[in-house]
Amino acid sequence: MSQITCNGSASPRPTNIFMTHMWAMFAVVFLAIYTANLAAFMITREEFHEFSGIDDPRLVKPWSHKPMFKFGSIPWSHTESTIAKYFKEMHSYIKNFSKSSVQKGIEAVIHGQLDAFFYDGTVLDYLVAQDEDCRLLTVGSWYAMTGYGLAFARNSKYVDMFNKRILEYQENEVIWVHIAR
């Protein structure tokens, strides 16, 4: 049974009113979530130097760009020797910004003394993941993918000793083992 209003039309049923309110509530919630996500995306967006990799022109010829980009590595490391072998101009530049350890290099980046720090990608990825304040970021592509292997003669007496030691190191988190399949 519906009621007749002054102009002769039937008044809306309670179900219609309820559905209209539900639709309006959905629209308000959806709009609020969208606006919050948009604001969060715009606020947390930080600028960083995007590099194509170690062969990026800003790194290969560091003196040709103003302001000069400050980056370094660890002297006498594999990373530094690779740069010395293949990127001579870059190598002479990074000597000015060398750090004695990975931790000192990371701290120099965090405190703004360096714009970037070059080292083994796996180590840097691990340290970035450990940074609870999200102050670090790895950019660019890896220059070289290297790994290490060890070969023994068939039926070598050292295989069991080596396997036990590797398992011991892995259990004590001295090394991390990645098995490729």
TrEMBL record:
Keyword Transport among record annotations: yes
What is this protein's record name? NMDA 2B (Xenopus laevis)
For this UniProt entry, the molecular function terms from Gene Ontology, in alphabetical order, are: ligand-gated monoatomic ion channel activity
Q: State one Pfam family annotation.
A: Lig_chan
Q: Which ranges carry the Ionotropic glutamate receptor C-terminal domain?
A: 1-178
Topology class, membrane: Multi-pass membrane protein
Which segments cross the bilayer? 22-43
